[in-house]
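tool_call: predict_structure(chain=1)
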Amino acid sequence: MNAPISLIALWFACMSVICHAGVKERPEILILHSYSQSFPWTKFQMEGLQNTFDKAFPDREIPVEYLDWKNFPLKENLQHFKKQLSMKYARKNWDVVITTDNAALDLALELRPVLFPHAYLIFTGINDYDPRDYADQTRLTGVIETVDWNSTIYQMLKIHPRASEIAVIMDSTEISGVLLKEFQRLMPQWKNKVRITTLHDLDMDEILNRVNKLPDDALILVTNFTMDHSKKIFTSREAIRLISQRGNVPVYGMWDMQLGYGIVGGWLLDGHLQGSIAADLTLKVLDGQHPPVVTKSSSRYYLDYKQMERYKIPLSDATDGAVMINYPLPIYKKYLPHIIVAIIIILILFILNIFLIRNIRKREAAERMAEESNQARETFMTLSAHEFRTPLTVLLFQLQLLLKMSRGETKKKSTPQDMTDAADMALVQGRRIHQLVENILLASKKGTFGGLLTVNETDLRTVIEKVANDLKHPLQNSGSTLDLKFEGSCKGQWEERKIEKLMSHLLSNAIKFGNGGPIEISAVTEAEGVTIKVKDHGIGINLEDKTKIFEKFGRAVSEYNFGGFGLGLYLSQRIVALHKGKISVESEPNQGTQFTVFLPFSPSRNS
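tool_result:
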């Protein structure tokens, strides 16, 4: 749906480059805006101008002035602005003066004999243009702000063929008076197709009261509205919001600055396009050409998908060629990046798994006797297959399910939530595999995890709460509950990432062997450090097994019943040792287990 915009933008870019070929390097250009810098229509026109000039004159800063006529339509404002321009630019020799909207053009023509005698005047956003009014002017061209009434009404009736009435809303400004005259000339051709009522020069309260009483098969067309009958000022978007909220029927507009604030759409005057055309005319003038006034409407057909949903307007032939905003991506496109990333992760993990197994097998062969080495390798191979098979199987299943959902091959119609649930499950299994690989990598390193500690101010409360949140799904699935208790500040100089791994290993261990019973974690601040206790009420540990649970690949239970590489407690012990702390265990079979960790406040950095 954005193809027309791309083609138009490409055309203007090409034209700008062609024109720029013969343009002098430092032309004197002045831009005069009728309205304020914050007024959306002015802002859009300025962006259209600036985008072209930035390419043609990348090193130039073009001066810009704002009359702010919409907020201050007073003679005093006009006189002050004239004096300001005269003071600043009396000695300038301008090549081109660009004006946006009527007030700035009228002012430029008035000041032209004194300030701009040799300048080419280029206008944009002009209403009610009549070439006879400018017959005595030379070196004048521009782009007319032509409202495309017929195209907008035609599209409104095409989308709503049963509409009985169109209420056209205009404010009390001079521009609306011009628009009303234009509209009145066109109204007869629509009188046999739909009833048209005009809400013009009324207070906002009266307009809101009238639109609230419109029949269900009516439509609203909001044109220019910035000031009501009582001279109360409204921003264009504020007026659209009020009318759209009060009315219960679809609202259409005429300017792109209204889009996204309550209108369904319409053939909207495009401020960026107006500015781009004016900039293109400027480059032609500077190249020695005399381009004619552009009279073709610079409108584009826009629709807002959110408003179409609000009024239950189906996507149909009436939307062909429209520039659609707020249009949601198809489900399969939305989740395609997740699927691709997941597949890449699987491939990487398979490669890493092969590499790690080969690496560990070599290390074990060098450290142990041949028979022990063979047995260890076989055990590790079996464990690897067992540990990686389950999450990889689930991950592959979820990815296959995502692909089927994206292709519509499932038995029931898939919802976005179904896609999200499948993606979440795949992500959980991917993280599980990542943790297994990371544990193997850490266990395979010599020394103390590869070097120095990087300590910083660490809050144990925050770390423990984060770990508990990360493991909330395994905790829920186990049936266990978790009770956290903290005494004192629980802060110290530790390496936060390693402490997080320590707590993750201990809590995971409690969940796995807690037998669904409650789990308690406490952190108590003492004189020289913090004592952490992790207690479960599960299967416990036999006395003869307590000495080997902190060894590499050590375990107190069958690997086939409970799984795991037997690395969690081994890595936990190494992390505690790095921080000059202590870790111990108290346990009785079938009575549960408690691990106690003491971390001094500030371990040596060079551990």
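agent: The mean pLDDT is 82. Proceeding to next step.
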